């Protein structure tokens, strides 16, 4: 209770500061440029791409400010009326380039043998931009192509939230043609923690009369980190997926007594069973249990973001140089795409400001303050205000098991409007869904892992298109 009261107090303080900064900031705060061609892609782009920077913070009022880099893809279908979504990739500190190229954007790496030349990119037919304009942002500062101005501002949940709030209002000021469009905030993985708070900050700003008024309608979260206790569901997930035996699971329950996070160092029996669990899962891709661990490359840091993680031994930060895995590996696409985005010709075409970053990296999760330990109360507030939400989980994700998401949704105690049922894509079961009274929809994606749109692009495309169009899954 004291922790939550502290969070609420901190939220009010941040809102006051944000309101002051938003009122005093310049009305024209963005620097965007149209991108018609990209190296590695034949011919002009068949969609509207704009890249640019938005200044956030105020060096006169705080320790640091910076420039947030973004990729803006205009909807390929009726952009004047299509919804607009701000998308943040998780991490924390993973570039939105990941969402753009590996998940929901209109381009992806062409999988072919690497010969040392610039990798080729092709178009993704299941891009969510076919029905929604999307702004992919690099947040927090220091992520991707975003950069901080000295003195350096520390990275954390609240600074990310404040800067995202500033970003969207400044961007809309400079793009007034989208002011009447429905606005959604989206993200996956660790973004499950800050995104609901960003939505609430925007809503509070609207109620306080901050301009421009934002036509906020809801939010989308995939495999969301929400309570920082997701790892406690790993044993039951592993048991349900037949990754551990009944005997090991029963021993875990008995010796750990349901506590798989704050473990007494003297509880040798519990620690031993957890070590067995880790060993049995060590040959699997930690992002999706359907695949084996493959090669040296990894799209994101391994393991959880909490230092108390049970699977910290899997954790490994991305280096600035990503080793080349076998072409058969899932991570081969990351090797190609990272080589592409680091090319000087590509960065010039994207209008990257020279000298602002030393070397682009996919994820930078160090030096980050985990200010918010539980975002569930924000879901409650947003539902009471009438905002729509789509929460989805790949059902083979061991990092954020679907049972952990179901548990905190169940704790919200919402009435069920439409009970558990399969949802279909191309006439086949693509997952299961349940709809709640407070405009919240939960869905599993069958056979998907931690990055569900990457594993199941067709199914996730169908899911999103139906939901964003206010149609049942």
UniProtKB/TrEMBL annotation:
It is found in: Secreted. It comes from the Eukaryota. Keywords: Carboxypeptidase, Disulfide bond, Glycoprotein, Hydrolase, Protease, Signal. Gene3D superfamilies: alpha/beta hydrolase. GO terms for cellular component: extracellular region. Its main location: secreted. One of its GO terms (biological process) is proteolysis. InterPro entries: AB_hydrolase_fold, Peptidase_S10. Residues 1-30 form the signal peptide. One of its GO terms (molecular function) is serine-type carboxypeptidase activity. Belongs to the peptidase S10 family. This is Uncharacterized protein. It comes from Acacia crassicarpa (northern wattle).
């Amino acid at each position: 209770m004291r922790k939550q009261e502290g969070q609420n107090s901190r939220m009010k303080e941040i809102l006051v500061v944000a309101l002051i900064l938003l009122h005093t900031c310049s009305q024209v705060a963005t620097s965007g440029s149209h991108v018609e061609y990209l190296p590695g892609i034949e011919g002009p782009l068949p969609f509207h791409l704009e890249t640019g920077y938005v200044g956030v913070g105020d060096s006169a009022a705080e320790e640091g400010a910076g420039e947030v880099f973004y990729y803006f893809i205009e909807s390929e279908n009726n952009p004047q009326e299509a919804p607009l979504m701000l998308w943040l990739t998780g991490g924390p500190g993973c570039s939105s380039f990941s969402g753009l190229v590996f998940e929901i954007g209109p381009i992806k790496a062409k999988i072919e043998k690497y010969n040392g030349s610039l990798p080729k990119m092709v178009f993704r037919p299941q891009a969510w931009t076919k029905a929604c304009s999307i702004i992919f942002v690099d947040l927090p500062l220091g992520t991707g192509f975003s950069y901080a101005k000295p003195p350096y501002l520390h990275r954390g949940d609240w600074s990310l939230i404040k800067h995202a709030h500033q970003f969207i209002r400044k961007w809309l000021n400079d793009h007034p043609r989208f002011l009447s469009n429905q606005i959604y905030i989206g993200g996956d993985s660790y973004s499950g923690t800050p995104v609901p708070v960003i939505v609430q900050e925007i809503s509070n700003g609207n109620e306080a009369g901050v301009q421009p008024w934002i036509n906020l309608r809801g939010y989308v979260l995939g495999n969301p980190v929400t309570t920082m206790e997701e790892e406690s569901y790993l044993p039951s997930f592993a048991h349900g997926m037949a990754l551990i035996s009944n005997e090991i699971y029963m021993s875990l329950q008995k010796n750990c007594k349901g506590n798989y996070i704050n473990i007494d160092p003297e509880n040798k029996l519990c620690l031993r069973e957890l070590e067995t669990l880790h060993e049995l899962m060590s040959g699997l891709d930690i992002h999706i249990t359907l695949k084996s661990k493959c090669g040296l490359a990894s799209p994101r840091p391994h393991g959880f973001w909490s230092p108390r993680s049970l699977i910290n031994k899997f954790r490994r930060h991305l280096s600035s140089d990503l080793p080349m895995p076998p072409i058969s590996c899932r991570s081969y696409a990351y090797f190609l795409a990272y080589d592409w985005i680091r090319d000087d010709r590509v960065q010039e075409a994207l209008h990257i400001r020279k000298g602002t970053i030393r070397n682009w990296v996919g994820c930078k999760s160090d030096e980050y303050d985990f200010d918010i330990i539980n975002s569930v109360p924000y879901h409650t507030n947003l539902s009471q205000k009438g905002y729509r939400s789509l929460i989805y989980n790949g059902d083979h994700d061991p990092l954020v098991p679907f049972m952990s998401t179901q548990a905190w949704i169940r704790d919200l105690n919402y009435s069920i409007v439409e009970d558990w049922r399969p949802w279909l894509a191309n006439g086949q079961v693509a997952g299961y869904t349940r709809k709640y009274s407070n405009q919240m929809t939960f869905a599993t994606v069958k056979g998907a892992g931690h990055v569900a749109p990457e594993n199941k692009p067709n199914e996730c495309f169908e899911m999103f298109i139906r939901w964003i169009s206010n149609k049942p899954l």
